[in-house]
Design a protein that fits this description.
13 helices, binds adenosine monophosphate, non-membrane spanning protein tyrosine kinase activity
Length: 555
């Protein structure tokens, strides 16, 4: 993979945050002054370092699975150059638009990064082991890292003995490595009198996730095992990494592999499902158990909602409705359904989010979780909700108990039991009768007119934010549903939770705008929380790398 920013005069390669700030200082600290540097945390990623109001901001740019580049939650662009061009026209959540590139001083080349040398070393090691070559440190890598590399090998070609010099570009040996870090073909040849090995490859995990190839290797090295709770111990301090959502097995759909997609069906075979006795939780319908689902090429951990056998047909129908809704959704911030299994009882098989409900997690880890960690999780929830809004689905039960954690830094929306798909021309769903409703999370129009829309989900999102920023407390204290209704009707709203940042309380209040027509939608909500998240994450003392209440910095 060549460095997509190598040609940019304002690209500094692998330099530290402090060095970037030095360059910006020397260049005058004008608003919108910016430079680009390599991200040390994710392969192919960058960091946009910029100045606004004499402050530094550092925005991580991720290389996404489809090869595009985006600032978290922002629009995707085909390259870092296009991304910078876009943000020079529109701040779109950044502290200000990019105005002036801070170019490298003459004679200064972009600093090679850790990934570059790691990549080279991996190839050397691979060649050494596969072809039993000694002295691979003398191999020189020639071609750019697109889909392959040419290595010049001094000495003999081990498979063929001595070659006659002068046989330009002739292939001598083709092989298809099937293990090791690379897949693809390789050929030995003789180029200009020196033996060479051409490797054309895709990195082994590229079929699954090109981005995570190296980063996951790095994370495995840096982080070590998960602790007993299943949470990665949170690193504190600059340069330490933590797993990003895309480094987990539940970021992409299990069916993103075309081979697996061939088998995708709503109904799963019972003999592909192993059910553990461990119960993850329970509801009216029955219980949720841990399990493993065997796919064509892999086995995945799953959560299985098992319907109680004595349940009536209506409950069964409800579970099937939930399955039908979930089947249509595919987003990293929403618990995906794998399928339904009809055997000893009706079972809904879902992706596993082993961290459990957000409210319970926050209540139990109150002393360890930072505000920026909560903002990060709530931003992810807003991204999931923005996706639902775009797909014209209403959730109708968004609450902290229905936000499940994959880990401390990765949240997914779950429980689609009350959800509805809206018709193409409908902006709301009208419930004929009131049911067992979570009134404290419901907007006035839901309670008064039974009208549910993405805007009423926004109201619930505000209540979920309140729960999160108060570390899992119950909303509206001891009030009963009808008391809450009159409290809202009087124009009153819940107070700002103790440690909650003012900006986040303002957003909650906007979510609790009485008239749905005036309430923001999820596009606006996501944009607001993203801007705030960036503004705190870009400041060294609040970097999103901090998981506990200590200070840490972004790369
Ligand atoms: P629900 O009825 O969907 O709210 O599920 C009841 C409980 O089961 C939740 O509160 C979780 O503790 C657990 N649970 C549900 N879905 C999952 C999942 N996909 N992964 C892990 N735990 C889950």
């Amino acid at each position: 993979m060549p460095d997509a920013a190598a040609h940019l005069p304002f690209y500094y390669g692998s330099i530290a945050r402090s060095e970037a700030e030095e360059h910006l200082k020397l260049a005058g600290m004008a608003d919108g002054l910016f430079l680009l540097r390599q991200c040390l945390r994710s392969l192919g990623g960058y960091v946009l370092s910029m100045v606004c109001d004499l402050q530094f901001y550092h925005y991580p740019i991720e290389r996404q699975l489809n090869g595009t580049y985006a600032i978290l939650g922002g629009k995707a662009h085909c390259g870092p150059e296009e991304l910078c061009e876009f943000y020079s026209k529109d701040a779109d959540g950044l502290c200000c638009p990019l105005r002036k590139p801070c170019n490298r001083p003459s004679g200064v080349e972009p600093q090679p990064g850790v990934f570059d040398s790691m990549r080279d070393n991996m190839v050397r090691e691979y060649v050494r082991q596969t072809w039993k070559l000694e002295g691979t440190e003398n191999l020189t890598l020639h071609s750019p890292w697109e889909k392959g590399a040419v290595l010049r090998v001094p000495g003999l070609c081990p498979a063929l003995g001595e070659l006659q010099p002068g046989l330009e570009q002739q292939c001598w040996l083709q092989s298809q490595p099937t293990s090791g870090p690379f897949r693809g073909s390789s050929s030995w040849g003789c180029v200009g009198g020196a033996f060479s090995l051409s490797l054309s490859f895709a990195f082994a995990t590229e079929a699954i996730s090109p981005l995570s190839t190296f980063s996951s290797l790095l994370f495995q090295r840096n982080l070590g095992p998960l602790n007993a709770d299943g949470y990665t111990p949170d690193p504190v301090g600059a340069g330490k990494s933590r797993p990003l959502p895309m480094d987990t097995s539940v970021y992409e759909s299990p069916y993103s592999d075309p081979e697996e997609l061939k088998d995708k069906k709503l109904f799963l075979k019972r003999d592909h499902l192993m059910i553990d006795e461990v119960e993850l939780g329970a509801g009216n319908f029955g219980c949720v158990k841990k399990g493993v689902y065997k796919m064509r090429k892999k086995q995945i951990d799953v959560a299985i909602k098992v319907l109680k056998s004595n349940n009536e047909k209506t409950v069964k129908d409800e579970m099937m409705k939930e399955a039908q809704i979930m089947h249509q959704l595919d987003n990293p911030y929403i618990v995906r359904m794998i399928g339904v299994c009809e055997a000893e009882s009706l079972m809904l098989v879902m992706e596993m989010a082993s961290g459990g409900p957000l409210n319970r997690f926050l209540a139990s880890k109150k002393d360890e979780i930072t505000m920026s960690n909560i903002v990060e999780l709530m931003h992810q929830v807003s991204m999931g909700m923005k996706y639902l809004e775009e797909k014209n689905f209403v959730h109708r039960d968004l609450a902290a108990r229905n936000v499940l954690l994959v880990n401390q830094h990765y949240a997914k929306i779950s429980d689609f039991g009350l959800s509805k798909a809206l018709g193409a021309d409908d902006s709301y769903y009208k419930a004929r009768t009131a049911g067992k409703w979570p009134l404290k999370w419901y907007a006035p129009e839901c309670i008064l007119f039974h009208k549910f829309s993405s805007k009423s989900d926004v109201w619930s999102y505000g209540v979920t934010m309140w729960e999160a920023f108060s570390f899992g407390q119950k909303p509206y204290k001891k009030m009963k549903g009808p008391e809450v209704i009159s409290f809202i009707e009087q124009g009153k709203r819940m107070d700002c939770p103790q440690e909650c940042p003012a900006e986040m309380y303002t957003l909650m209040q906007q979510c609790w705008t009485y008239r749905w027509e005036e309430r923001p939608g999820f596009v606006a909500v996501e944009n607001m929380i993203r801007s705030y998240y960036y503004s705190i994450a870009a400041k060294p003392e609040n970097g999103p790398g901090t998981g506990d209440k200590a200070k840490a910095a972004l790369p």
